[in-house]
Amino acid sequence: MADTTKYFETDLPARLESDSDFASSINNVFQFEIEGAGTWHITPDGVVAQGEHDDPECVVTSDKETFDEVLDDPSIAMGKFMAGKIAATDLGLAMQLQQFLG
After folding, report:
1. Taking the domains of the chain in order of start, what are their residue ranges?
2. What is the pLDDT of residue 102?
3. Alpha-carbon distance 38 to 44, whole Å?
């Protein structure tokens, strides 16, 4: 099973470093507030950092169990949004999140 903390600490930064196309596709500041795993943000310059950003453009909230499930199977993300297990402050930007999960 995926681990949200490992994803933000290791997996996502490694992907950003190794995949320049993916890194250059990030044009907004995303903040993830994951109950049980902390708060993380991603910036357009490819930085993944723990903690809050001063001006996030989209804040995603969830619990660790749900986010772990989505990391294991990104195809369930929309269903989790519809069920209220994941919320976002900007739904349009949140639609771009599939790229982070794939």
Report:
1. 4-101
2. 60
3. 20
